[in-house]
Amino acid sequence: MDVNDPQIWVLIGTFSTVLIGVLTLTLSLTLRTVRAEVGKVRHELLGEIGEVRHELRGEIRALGADIARVEGVMNARFETVDRRLDGLDRDVTALTRRVMGEEA
Prior knowledge:
The protein contains one helix and no strands. The chain is mainly α. The model has no long low-confidence stretch (mean pLDDT 90).
């Protein structure tokens, strides 16, 4: 049998066509599977990011409330200290007037 026989060329052509077809089908299915999996991963990541964003916003709100509460406590303490300083200032003024001989 020579390579010039038509049957040999038909077999070579058929084998090449089948090989290219199988390769194309395999590559196409693999690509479709990879795209689907990447889509699933992207969807899951977006969901996770949304959950983290929601939790972070809640934590920021809670932190803001804590800061507001601490600010209220600090303002109340500062007002108490201011009243004490006003009383102390009044007492020192009275003592100074008494020691220096000024009449009130």
